[in-house]
Design goal:
heterodimer, A: about 325 residues, alpha/beta, Rossmann fold, six-stranded mixed sheet, 11 helices, disordered N terminus, B: about 325 residues, mainly alpha, 12 helices
Chain lengths: ~325, ~325
C-alpha cells in the first residue's frame, strides 16, 4: 500500500462528489443526521432534505448512526457538522436521552437543533420538533378498527416497538384510545393494556421479529382477531404467521407508516388500514427552518405536526380515510 | 528473540498505514478549508479516543494470535455499572469508577481463563462473553440510559487550551496509554513474551515462558483497558449508555488490521494501531466536512482493510 494507491482509492471512492464541494461561502450549511443509512424512511427523508436544500440554495451535510441505537455515531456526526460550519442540524435521535448532552453543546455554540420524527428526552432539549403526531396516527387506526368491528368482541394482539421508546408508546396508546378505551391520553406514561388486549409483544419494527412475536401470540391465544402493528414490516411478519396458521382471512391487521410496500399491502388486503406519515415533508420543513435561521437568526420552536392520513380501500362510516391510489401517490420508499 | 523483524519486511506493513493517513490528510486539506486546523485535529482525536483505547487491548490480544469480540460489550457493561453505582447508589465516583473497571477486568479474566484452561478458541469464547456482557448490561440497566451523572465522572471530557485549540483530557490519556503500551511491548520482558506467545506458543513454552499466565494477563490487561475506555465513553457522552459499544469490536479489529498487525499473531506494532484508529477518524471527519455521505467512509475503510491484510499475507509468505 503506497501513497499513490491511497490517493487513487480516495478519489475513486469519492468520485462525483468531489466536484460539488467548492461551496459558495455565503451558502448556509444545514446538517441532517438520521438513525441509519439504510431504512427507506430515512432515505426518503434525505431525499426531501436534498430537494429543499437545492431549492433554497443551501448546502446539505448528511450522516447517520451505524445501526439502530448507535448514539456515539450520532454524537460524532454532530461534532463534525459543527466543525464544517453547519448553522442548523436536524436529527432523528437513536437514543432520546443519551443524545441530549451533545445537543446542548451544539446549541451552546449557536447551532439550531431540530428533532425530526422522534423527540429528544426532554423534548425541549432541541429548539423544535417536526414530527408525526404518533398518538393521533394510532387513534386513526383504532377508530377504524372499532368501526369495522361494530360491537363484535375483539381479541387484540399488539406488536409494539421495543420497551420504553416514546414513539412506540404513543402509537400503542393512541390505538387503544381510538378503539374506545377510556382514560388513555397522549400523556399516559408507558404502554396501556385493556381487557381486549390478549397479547403484547415487541417486534422492534422488524419483519422477522414481528413474525416471531405473532406466532407466540397465537400460541398464547388462538382466538386473536385484531392485530395492531407498530409499522408495516411488522405487519408483513404478522401476516406471514397468520397465513401459516390459516387465519389470514379472519384476522384484521392495522398498521402505521405509509411506506410504499405498506400501502401495496393495504391494496392487496394484507393490511386493512394504515396511518401514513410524511418523512419527506419533515426534512423539507427542517431545511427551510435552517435556512431562515442562517439568514435572519429567527429560530423555529416548539412542536410542528407534519400530518398523518388514514389509508384504506374499505372506508368505514364516520372515519375519514383516503384510498390506496392516493396513498401510493404520497408514499415513501419503493 | 523471535520478535525481531527481518530485513525490509516491516517497511510495507509499518509505512503503508502512515502513508495512507498522510495521503488522506493531504487530500482532505485540499478539499475543505476547515480540515487543516488544530481544533479539527483535536476533534478527531477526541472522537477516536474510546475505540482508540479499546484497540490497545485488542492489539495485545491479536498479538497473541487471539481475537476479542466482547470488548465493546464489556465497555458498555463497565460504563453502566460505574454510572449506576454513582447515580442510583450514591457511591463516590472514586469508588464507582473502579467498580465499573473491575467488571471489565472480570470479563477479561473469564476470557483468558477459558482460552488457556479449556483451550477454547478465543473467537468462540469472546463471542459467548460478548452476548453475556450485553445481556447483563440490558438486564441490570433495564435498557435505560443512565443520566444525571456527578461532574467528576465526566472529567476526561473537559478541555484545556493549547493556543487557540481546546484539547480534552481524555485525548491526553489515550495518547499516554499508547506510549506506555509501546514502552511495555518494546522494553520489558513480559512485553516480549506477548510477541513470543503469538509467534509460536510451543517454542515460547519450551524457552520457559509461562504461556498460560501471559495469555490470562493479556486478556485481563485488555479488560482493564476496556474499563478505561468505558470511563472515556461516559465522559464523552455524559451518560451511561447501555446501547453503546455495539460495533466497537469490529471497529477496533479494523483499526488493528489497518495498522499492520497480523491476525496470525506475533507481528505488529501498537503505533500502527494508533495510525489505524486515526485513518478511520480522519476519513469520517474529512468526508463529513466535504459533505459526502458517511457511507463512503465505510466503503473506503473496507478497501483499506483488504489492502492491509493482503499486504500482511504476501509479506508473511515471503518472510
Amino acid at each position: 500500500m503506497n501513497s499513490k494507491h491511497c490517493i487513487a482509492l480516495a478519489m475513486l471512492a469519492l468520485g462525483a462528489q468531489v466536484v460539488q464541494t467548492a461551496a459558495a461561502a455565503d451558502e448556509p450549511i444545514v446538517g441532517l443526521i438520521t438513525k441509519t443509512e439504510t431504512n427507506p424512511f430515512f432515505v426518503k427523508m434525505k431525499e426531501g432534505a436534498q430537494q429543499a436544500a437545492k431549492a433554497q440554495g443551501a448546502k446539505l451535510l448528511t450522516a447517520a448512526g451505524k445501526a439502530d441505537g448507535d448514539n456515539a455515531g450520532q454524537v460524532t456526526a454532530i461534532e463534525n457538522m459543527i466543525s464544517a460550519g453547519a448553522k442548523a442540524i436536524m436529527i432523528t435521535p437513536n437514543d432520546s436521552k443519551a443524545i441530549v448532552p451533545a445537543i446542548k453543546k451544539a446549541r451552546a455554540q449557536g447551532v439550531m437543533v431540530i428533532a425530526l420524527d422522534s423527540p429528544a428526552d426532554p423534548q425541549d432539549a432541541t429548539d423544535a420538533l417536526f414530527a408525526t403526531d404518533n398518538f393521533k396516527a394510532g387513534e386513526l387506526i383504532g377508530a377504524y378498527s372499532k368501526a369495522a368491528f361494530g360491537g363484535k368482541p375483539a381479541k387484540i394482539a399488539t406488536l409494539d416497538l421495543f420497551p420504553g421508546h416514546p414513539v412506540g408508546i404513543a402509537r400503542h396508546n393512541g390505538f387503544l384510545a381510538g378503539f374506545g378505551a377510556g382514560g388513555i391520553t397522549a400523556k399516559t406514561v408507558g404502554q396501556s393494556k385493556t381487557a381486549d388486549v390478549v397479547c403484547m409483544a415487541d417486534s422492534y419494527g422488524d419483519q422477522g421479529k414481528g413474525q416471531t412475536a405473532m406466532e407466540n401470540c397465537l400460541q398464547k391465544n388462538p382466538g386473536i382477531n385484531l392485530v395492531y402493528t407498530i409499522n408495516e414490516p411488522a405487519a408483513a411478519g404478522a401476516y406471514k404467521a397468520l397465513k401459516a396458521a390459516g387465519k389470514e382471512k379472519s384476522v384484521m391487521i392495522v398498521s402505521i407508516d405509509g411506506g410504499c410496500n405498506g400501502v401495496r399491502d393495504v391494496k392487496a388486503g394484507v393490511i386493512a388500514a394504515t396511518s401514513q406519515q410524511y418523512p419527506l415533508k419533515m426534512a423539507a420543513m427542517g431545511v427551510e427552518a435552517g435556512v431562515v435561521y442562517a439568514k435572519t437568526g429567527k429560530k423555529a420552536s416548539g412542536y410542528v405536526d407534519t400530518g398523518v392520513t388514514l389509508i384504506s380501500d374499505k372506508a368505514m362510516a364516520g372515519v375519514d380515510s383516503k384510498d390506496t391510489t392516493y396513498g401510493l401517490g404520497a408514499c415513501w420508499g419503493k | 528473540m523471535t520478535t525481531r523483524f527481518k530485513g525490509a519486511l516491516p517497511a510495507l506493513t509499518v509505512l503503508g498505514p502512515v502513508f495512507a493517513l498522510l495521503a488522506a490528510g493531504i487530500f482532505f486539506a485540499f478539499q475543505s478549508d476547515r480540515f487543516l486546523s488544530g481544533q479539527n485535529f483535536s476533534l478527531i482525536l477526541q472522537q477516536v479516543m474510546v475505540v482508540g483505547v479499546i484497540a490497545i487491548g485488542q492489539t495485545l490480544i491479536i498479538l497473541t494470535a487471539g481475537i476479542d469480540l466482547s470488548c465493546g460489550m464489556a465497555m458498555a457493561l463497565g460504563s453502566v455499572v460505574a454510572t449506576k453505582f454513582a447515580v442510583d447508589y450514591g457511591l463516590s465516583p472514586l469508588l464507582a469508577v473502579p467498580c465499573g473497571m473491575l467488571a471489565c477486568v472480570l470479563i477479561g479474566y473469564v476470557n483468558g481463563a477459558l482460552v488457556t484452561a479449556i483451550r477454547l478458541p478465543p473467537f468462540i469464547v469472546t463471542l459467548g462473553t460478548m452476548n453475556i456482557a450485553f445481556a447483563i448490561t440490558q438486564i441490570y440497566s433495564q435498557a435505560q440510559t443512565v443520566t444525571g451523572l456527578p461532574e467528576a465522572m465526566t472529567f476526561f471530557g473537559n478541555t484545556f487550551q493549547i493556543g487557540s485549540t481546546s484539547v480534552t483530557y481524555g485525548t491526553v490519556l489515550m495518547l499516554t496509554l499508547y506510549l506506555l503500551t509501546w514502552l511495555f511491548l518494546r522494553e520489558t520482558a513480559p512485553g516480549r513474551h506477548v510477541y513470543a506467545v503469538g509467534n509460536n506458543p510451543e517454542a515460547a513454552r519450551l524457552t520457559g515462558i509461562a504461556t498460560g499466565r501471559v495469555l490470562v494477563g493479556v486478556y485481563m490487561a485488555a479488560g482493564l483497558l476496556y474499563g478505561i475506555a468505558a470511563m472515556l465513553s461516559v465522559a464523552r457522552m455524559g451518560v451511561g449508555d447501555p446501547q453503546g459499544g455495539q460495533t466497537d469490536n469490529l471497529d477496533s479489529i479494523t483499526a488493528v488490521v489497518l495498522g499492520g498487525t497480523s491476525l496470525f499473531g506475533g507481528r505488529g506494532s501498537i503505533g500502527g494501531t494508533l495510525v489505524g484508529v486515526l485513518i478511520v477518524g480522519v476519513f469520517r471527519n474529512g468526508l463529513t466536512l466535504m459533505g459526502v455521505p458517511s457511507v463512503y467512509q465505510i466503503l473506503v475503510t473496507g478497501i483499506l482493510v483488504i489492502l492491509a491484510v493482503a499486504t500482511d499475507q504476501l509479506t508473511h509468505k515471503k518472510g
